[in-house]
Write a structure and sequence with these properties.
With 204 residues, the protein is α+β, with helices and mostly antiparallel strands. It is 43% helix and 25% strand. It is elongated and about 80 Å long.
């Protein structure tokens, strides 16, 4: 089973401010469990045009916020039990998302390498690190509240699978899925025609 970490640079003012401190090209982290990134989870802005209203989000990688984004996508193979633990933790947070907040104080603390762990509050990479920890994956032996997006890239279990324009990745893998569907449909049509011929032969 696969887990995908999506690191993005959306080019927003908020991202540019964070970049001044991190000096890293990608400063937002999300986690997904499918290659096409149909569903990605993170802590971020609830509304694309307002960075100050934040919390748990299911991100639309084809939406307005990510339209011009560059990205680095990492993949990790996990066991069924690791996968299940991570999914379960996300579902728990999602079901109680109104109780969770974006950890603005923790974000600026981590930029200064200061530990600030708040209850039911996460910034993006803190959330991702927490979910990975639930699956038994540790990021540089750091507490989640000190994990920056670039720390995730240094975890030995992850491999880089793509870096570049996010839309390019989505387009590429969307076409691959379409091709796979076409192949399945052709195969089903072929098998159906054989069964039909066989049925006619038996009937005669």
């Amino acid at each position: 089973m696969q887990v995908y970490i999506i690191l993005t640079n959306t080019g927003t003012l908020f991202t540019r401010i964070i970049k001044v401190f991190t000096r890293y090209p990608f400063n937002h982290a999300s986690i997904s469990f499918d290659q096409q990134l149909d569903v990605a989870y993170s802590f971020g802005r609830k509304k694309p045009n307002n960075p100050f209203i934040g919390g748990f989000v299911k991100e639309d990688m084809e939406g307005q916020l990510f339209r011009q984004a560059s990205c680095a996508i990492y993949k990790c193979t996990v066991s069924e039990s690791e996968y299940r633990e991570m999914i379960q933790r996300i579902k728990q947070i999602e079901e109680q998302q109104e109780l969770y907040k974006y950890n603005f104080i923790g974000l600026f603390a981590v930029l200064l390498n200061k530990k600030m762990n708040r209850e039911k509050a996460y910034f993006c990479s803190q959330f991702v690190a927490t979910i990975l920890s639930n699956g038994g994956i540790s990021i540089k032996d750091k507490p989640a509240c000190l994990v920056k997006p670039n720390d995730i890239t240094e975890c030995g279990r992850f491999e880089l699978v793509y870096q570049g324009d996010l839309r390019g990745y989505l387009l590429k893998h969307g076409k691959e899925i379409e091709k796979q569907a076409e192949k399945r449909n052709r195969r089903l049509y072929y098998l159906n025609s054989i069964y039909t011929k066989l049925a006619r032969t038996i009937a005669n």
